[in-house]
Write a structure and sequence with these properties.
The structure is a single chain. The chain is of the alpha+beta class. It has three domains: 17-79 and 91-278, P-loop containing nucleotide triphosphate hydrolases (Rossmann fold); 300-391, 3-Layer(aba) Sandwich (Rossmann fold), CATH 3.40.50.300; 394-531, Peptide chain release factor 3, domain III (Alpha-Beta Plaits). An eight-stranded antiparallel beta sheet has the order 16-15-21-12-13-20-17-18. The chain has an eight-stranded antiparallel beta sheet with strand order 26-23-25-24-28-29-27-30. A seven-stranded mixed beta sheet has the order 2-3-1-4-5-11-6, sandwiched between helices. Residues 50-74 have low confidence and may be disordered. The site of guanosine-5',3'-tetraphosphate has 16 residues, from helix 2.
């Protein structure tokens, strides 16, 4: 291996690229902020939250988000910690999340599932978990808000196992709860970590470590009144629980669990240290030419998100590219595999929360923003070497549907152009009734806010005032290619085609599909469709 290959291998090995999945209000912003603080990327707590509000001050169509006080855009944050380069792929946290949230998860190498100790596994977490499971990435669990009296930790573990179908293996255990939450006991390293200070901390908490078995007298003494409870819980887990198995974590069959409080900083650093140790670095990704090794292959990557007009001073689109192999070098050339064209990797910027920072070199696991003159689509592969394509990014089942009503025929051309372009960006999904030709489409979105953004952008960018009528459907399933479409003629579902001519069926609830599946066990009903 020459020096350049060694450097590439070392950069890959130290990278950790992950996303945090959670239900709104579980504490994702707070935890992200604390992680950035530990990494020295933020000087004061509160900055991420402040950014949440001010980030789009200069933005045009995102004005809408500002008005509603929420963020629909994902961005990327990075920091250094204990020799690791950490990339956090941020996903919209509001309940009006969008399909981008799902796509972003496909660009991560692992996920941190954040759970509110008082609430357990909530609906949005469940959906995001399913996407992580589909992509096969390892999932780590942080049970947050231990500074409040929440539910029993053992009960929370059972809920994770039963609801999500993954084995939950605590690597540490809380000492006390609520106001009495004082520390965590590390089961593997056999040490007690006690915390003090740090309330709403702008810096590290004070951390005292006492080594020894859970029954050692020094450990018991420091645990105080919580000692017997901790010992009993750990005995139970040692006896009846599964042992921690890194192989099973990598296979997505087991989730390591940590306890803490993002607000007080208690437990955040022990979690971060262990997580960075265990979480995978960028690995090989499947492609049409087989697995692509991050260190062996020349530069390659795929587009997982396209964002238009982030900044009115730069009326451009930015394609978010996840680097998968080799070195991304600014001003070099690569093949845009879908069209076969050579493109120059110019005007690249490392996309992150605090604006865009020019980037000259990036490594597997990093995300770069590429200036997009309108050539990129979600899922496109760029490769400096052979022409292969990474496995496509699927369309996910929308949960909201609307029919487009056009008032003025004059606008028809702009309407079609606008919808087509916004669908290409992945802002909305378009469906048509079979045989209806160029009739106005039916729109599908994962989050209802996508429709608001669409209407706003259609009016500001294409001068079309889009009238939408909500349809009563909540779920879509793509049909296998040889499905007999007659089946759907009499059922209470709606048969449509997507932009690529694939048959899609809408229903008002999953119940309809369950019924259909019982009647026709041979039916192939897929919750996602892979882009051709
Ligand atoms: P989100 O991004 O997942 O939506 O959650 P966010 O971090 O905004 O946190 C939601 C609320 O939960 C905030 O309270 C936050 O302070 C609180 N929180 C987060 N982590 C913890 C924790 O470990 N313990 C406790 N007790 N609370 C936590 P808020 O009242 O909505 O906002 P704020 O006024 O505190 O900013």
């Amino acid at each position: 291996m020459d020096a350049s290959q060694q450097e590439l291998a070392a950069e890959i090995a130290r990278r950790r690229t992950f996303a945090i999945i959670s239900h709104p209000d579980a504490g994702k912003t707070t935890l992200t902020e604390k992680l950035l603080l530990f990494g020295g990327a933020l000087r004061e707590a509160g900055a991420v939250r402040a950014q949440k509000a001010s980030r789009y001050a200069t933005s045009d169509w995102l004005e809408l988000e500002k008005q509603r006080g929420i963020s629909v855009s994902s961005s990327v944050m990075h920091f250094e910690h204990s020799g690791h380069r950490v990339n956090i792929l941020d996903t919209p946290g509001h309940k009006d999340f969008s399909e981008d949230t799902y796509r972003t998860l496909l660009a991560a190498d692992s996920a941190v599932m954040l759970i509110d100790a008082g609430k357990g596994v909530e609906s949005q977490t469940r959906k995001l978990f399913e996407v992580c499971r589909m992509s096969g990435i390892p999932i780590f669990t942080f049970i947050n808000k231990m500074d409040r009296l929440g539910r029993d930790p053992l009960e929370l573990l059972t809920e994770i196992e039963e609801v999500l179908g993954i084995d939950a293996v605590p690597l540490d255990w809380p000492v006390g709860a609520g106001r009495e939450f004082r520390g965590v006991y590390d089961r593997q390293l056999q040490k007690l970590v006690l915390f003090s200070g740090g309330k709403h901390g702008t810096a590290l908490v004070d951390q005292t470590e006492i080594e020894g078995a859970v029954d050692a007298s020094a450990v018991r003494e420091f645990m105080g009144s919580a000692a017997s409870e901790v010992r009993d819980a750990l005995e139970l887990l040692d006896g009846a629980g599964e042992p921690f198995d890194p192989e099973r974590v990598r296979a997505g069959a087991q989730t390591p669990v940590f306890f803490g409080s993002a607000l007080t900083n208690f437990g955040v650093l022990p979690f971060l240290d262990r997580f960075l140790e265990i979480a995978p670095c960028p690995g090989a990704r499947d492609s049409s030419a087989g697995p692509i090794d991050p260190a062996e292959a020349p530069f390659s990557g795929f587009v997982f998100k396209i964002q238009a007009n982030m900044d009115p001073d730069h009326r451009d689109r930015v394609a978010f590219l996840r680097v998968c192999s080799g070195r991304f070098v600014k001003e070099s050339n690569a093949t845009h595999v879908r069209t076969g064209k050579r493109v120059r990797l110019s005007k690249s910027s490392l996309v992150q929360a605090r604006g865009r920072e020019g980037v000259d070199v990036a490594y597997p696991g990093d995300v770069v923003g590429l200036f997009d003159p309108g050539i990129y689509r979600i899922g496109d592969t760029l490769s400096a070497g052979d022409s292969f394509a990474f496995e496509g990014i699927p369309s996910f089942s929308p949960e909201h549907f609307a029919r487009v009503e056009v008032a003025e025929v004059l606008n028809r051309k702009s309407l079609n152009k606008g919808l087509e372009q916004l669908a290409q960006e992945g802002a909305v999904q378009l469906f048509t009734e079979p045989g209806a030709g160029t009739a106005v489409p039916i729109l599908g979105a994962v989050g209802p806010l996508q429709f608001d953004v669409l209407q706003h952008r259609m009016s500001t960018e294409y001068k079309v005032s889009l009238k939408l009528t909500a349809l009563p459907y909540q779920i879509a399933r793509w049909l296998g290619p040889d499905t007999d479409r007659e089946i759907f003629r009499f059922s209470e579902t709606k048969l449509l085609e997507d932009r690529d001519g694939r048959a899609v069926v809408l229903a008002k609830s999953p119940w309809y599909f369950e019924r259909l599946q019982e009647k026709h066990p041979e039916l192939v009903l897929s919750p996602t469709a892979i882009h051709a």
